[in-house]
Amino acid sequence: MSPYEHGLSTTEAMIKLHDQLTAVLSHHRKQQWERTWKEVWRDHFLHHSNRWSSLHWPGALLMLLAAVTLIGCHDSQLPESKGVEVVNGCALIVFLLLNLTMIGLQQWLKSQEMPRRVRNTIQNLDALLRNPEFEHQDMYPDLFTPPSQSISLQWTYRDGRLVNLPVSLLVEGDIIMLRPGQEAPASLRGIWEDQHVILDKGDIFCIFSSPPSPLVNSRINPDNLLQPHAFRVIKTPIIKNILECLELGHQRPATVLDNERFTAQSLLEKVVAPLVLSLLLIINYIQFIFGYPGIGPWQVTLLQLQVNGVLPVLPLTFPALWLLINAYGEARVLIQLKTSAAHCMVTIFAENALFNRFHLLYQQERWLETWKICFRIFCGQCPVLCHTGSLLHSLGSITVLCCVDKQGILSWPSYKPEKVLFFSKSTDCSNEGSLVTSGSSDLENAEEQLIGLKTLAKLQIPCNRSGVQSAYKKFMGTPAPCVLNKDSFMMWFKEGRRAEILKNKLYVSNNKHYSSVHACTCMCAHDWNPTQQGTWASAAASLLVSEGCSFCDVSLEVLSLSQDRENLAHVQFDDPNWHRHDASLKPLGISTLLGLCDQKVVARGWQLADHLSNIALLGSRPSCLPVQVPWGMCELARAIGFTYSAKTPFQLQMYTAAYTLTTVACPQEVSPWQLKPVIKRKLPLSHMINLQVHDRNSGALELFSYGSADTILSACTDLWDGSDIKPFSLSDRKKVLDFYQRASLAGQCLALSFKPLFHPLDPEVNGKCIQLPSGMEHSHTGYQEQHDTADAEGNQNQACVFPNDALRSPENEDHLQSLHNQIFLGLVSCQHQARLDMVRFISGLDHACIRFVYFSLEDELKSKVFAEKMGLETGWNCHISL
Description:
This protein is of the alpha+beta class and 882 residues long.
């Protein structure tokens, strides 16, 4: 039975969420009624330890005693001032009642703000359920929306189909599809055969029961891709958050202004007022005992004078005024954050004669809107949480602003291309101009001579007449010339070399697939490995070098990209003359467009990345970084000049992936006196993703590959320099690998390669992953030397290789042969680019003497790189890696 048959419909999910929210709200109300009097008193605004309140029981008690005392002293007043003390006492009682009412209203609004929000949510759900057409509205994001830390989405079955649902809308009983390596969004339990699997929120889902690439009949068997597993949600995730908001909403820490006010008010009520009252009472009592002249009745001397002296330190109207000022300040802040149409009109007519009139209308509108918001604040209808947390106090007392989340807030949700590495032609081949076209018969004769002469060179035939004549007759099929000397051999050797170049030229011109690429191949002697002196092969090598048949020199180029000022979502090259590298960048652009910008291809790539991430977390020792889908690479293709319509003639036929497990040294290989390997920073899993694409226009098959540079380099034997295909030298490989390692430690780096296919890939590997045997990823001689050098420097981990002749069997090359001999196109490094508005915001904070601190969940190097992009001082503790 399919998972969607067990999934909930939208109506069922909304009803269940509605019922659970109602139950939570009822439970919260019940808890509030069941509280003891001690708990109620501790949370009451009159409690002396309540910091958010501006009226406490000492101040209220002093005001009440002062009012009662003044009213009680009305009979002892002079005839001309009778009734004044009664009025004063009544005024104190009115002020006390006003303060109690205002602060009591504030406490009630504070305690009801969160429950009111929950009730509004329940009412919105009721409105949705009463609308019969809301189920038919496609309100869900695309399934393959790039993941972001600020947007939590989850594949969920709703209404019989798989949708990308916000995590906050998940309810108990929902069926979700959890991908390998994905974090559990809620408490989950597996269904069917996975019922024993229980995941808590935040756990990483890994599949342990799928060993990679098992050996079957001494042959590497590709392993099937790990599929997303169905899980049932056993707890609604949003309920826990709502419970915390209801229970802890009124326990938020006090602001800086509230703390300062509480400190000053406590000193006045607990120290200054009692001290003044005690001193006045002692002085007046002494005067009354000793009959000081002018002393009135005892009611005036012992009661009224003390009240008159302590009145200045009592909170007469301060609590009410403090509440009114805070409400007005909150309204002004909200007005500043709100874009008004009148403000736009003032901006338009700023230079017009009607400016004064529009400015007056604008000021009146702001004044009316401010008092409307004040009224809403006192009625509990403010759009923001102004009672639970004061926006005015937070912005008015801030000195340090800290931010933890990065993706989608400080930066764009996905990576953006930052640097592009490729090769460019620096000099031309001098021998190409001497080549002339020839007929088919001449070409065939030249090919025959070429085959024979190459065979002579490979066999290292000694320089004697009998040996050469017999070998020539055996491999050429015709008797050797009567005079076979060194000069004639050199002449035939040159003709054979010219024939091979001519063959490549004619093949290129007759093949539409290579219309933009022509080969310049030179049969250098090191391909034939002549090591013995005195052979004609070594003499031929000297001849080739003397005639200038060397590989055309190539230069490594790196172009940087930055955000487009006109469209911040796009990127552009920093070099205004980047078009001179069009020939080198176009293959990179079309490879990126076909492999990373098509929705179907991205879906396959995401599945491959999930499988590789599971292997990186479980199979490699130590664990590598999970493989991420290179989101945002489409911007590179757009910057180069490609549009989405350019991929129309191409069709994806097959896709596969290959990877290499990273292992540390075996325990038996580590001597007791040697230190164990310590890995400070992790690199991504060595992998490559291959896509077989069919060109409908020419009917040709093409293989596009992307992945980590170490695996891509091992599969490449040549490189593209913008005009020619050149062999990949050891020094060029070293430069590329160094760039990749630096870029991977600071962000994300992707290598791309290409290969024309004369035969399609083996259908057995379609949609599967292949584990490269130990050492096979370094099959190329140059790359093996480079890897050994990197091992000596400590940049790579030594492989724990067990001797196994089965892995060296030619049968194992069946799946991997078509992945070899690729053409290297370039590297693309990506970084999280800081949003320009956030950069300006941080600069404004700096001018306002507010320090911005970035707490990063990544390592120190990545945190430092991104902090520099935001303009922070990386030498100071403005970025902290957690």
